[in-house]
Amino acid sequence: MTLAQSFNVQRPSGRRLLALARTELLLLRRNRTALLTAVIMPIAMVSGLHSILKAQREHLAGVSMTAALLLNLTVVSLTFGVYYNLTAAYVARRGELVLKRLRTGELTDAEILGGTAVPSVLLALLQIVLMAVGIAVLLGLPAPVNPVLVLLGLLLAIGVLVPLAALTSAVTRTVETSGFTTLPVVLITMAGSGLLVPFSVFPGWLADLGRRLPATPALELLRIGWLGGDGSAPATSLAGTWQPALPYLVSALIWIAIACWAAHRRFLWEPRR
Predict the structure, then answer these.
(1) 86: phi > 0 → left, psi -120 to 50 → alpha, else beta; which?
(2) 185: how many CB neighbours lie within 10 A of its CB?
(3) Does 126 or 9 have the greater pLDDT score?
(4) How many Å apart are CA 243 and CA 240, to the nearest integer?
(5) Do the Cβ atoms of 87 and 169 come closer than 8 Å?
C-alpha cells in the first residue's frame, strides 16, 4: 500500500492529520542532513550569539542576558527548524509525487500541508525547550513576565513561517537549491527581527521597516512576553505587557492571512517543469 492509499480509508480529519504527521516523522528521522541542520546549528551558534549580545550590552540595559540569549536562539530554531526544513520537505514530497497522490485521497490541502509541517514544528519546539532548560540550569534564566504572550508569539511565528515555507517551495526546483531560495527570508528574519541586533541601534526608518517584516510582530510578542517590554526600557508588570503587545498581535494575524493566501495561490503540487 502506498503512502497516498493509506489515507483513502474513512477517517476523521484529526486522525488523518496525525497519520500523515507520523509518516512525516519517520521520513524526517531518515533525513540526517535536515536533522543536523535543525539540531546542531542552533546549539553551535550559542557562543557566537552570546558574543553579539555582550557587544550590544549598552543597548540592553536592564535586560537579562540569558533571556535575550534564549530569544535569539528561538529565532534561529524557528527559522531553520521550521522555515528552512519545511521548505525542503515540501520540495522533496512534491518531487516524489507524494503531494499529488495524497490529493487523490480524502485529505484536504490544508491537512496535507499541515501534516507535512508537524515534524519540523515539533523538532523546533523541542530545541527551544531543551535550550531553555539548559540555559536555566547552567546560566540561570528569569521566568517570563507574561507566559501567555510567549506562547502566542511562538504559535504566531510558526503560523507565518509555515505558509512562507510553502510559498518559497513554489520557486524551489530541488531540495539542494532550497538553501539558496530560503536564504533571503532567513537573513531578513534573523537580521530584521530586532532580537539579534536591537532596533535601538538602527536608523529610525530601518527600525520601522524591520518591525513591518512578516515574522517580526510574532517575535516581538515573544520579546514582550518574556522581558516585559521591547528591551529598550525596564520591564513592566504582566498587566502592562498587553497594551504594547496588541499592535503586534494584530500585525501578526494580518501577515499570517497574507502568507496563507499567497501560499494557497502559488503552491505547486507537482514538480516544476
Answers:
(1) alpha
(2) 21
(3) 126
(4) 6
(5) yes
- The per-residue pLDDT for range 169-185, each reduced to its tens digit, is 999 999 999 999 999 99
Q: How far apart are the first and last CA of the chain?
A: 28
Domain ranges across the chain: 11-266
Give the span between the Cα atoms of 78 and 188, in whole angstroms: 13
| Grid cell in block for residue 14 | 484529526
For 236, list phi and psi in degrees, rounded to 5.
-100, 180
**Nearest-angstrom CA–CA distance, 151 and 129:** 12
SS3 content of the chain, % helix, strand, coil (to 5): 75, 0, 25
H-only helix segments in 96-169? 98-102, 109-138, 147-169
User: How many Cβ atoms are within 10 Å of 218's Cβ, its own excluded?
Assistant: 27
Contact of 196 with 231, CB cutoff 8 Å: no
pTM over 0.70: yes
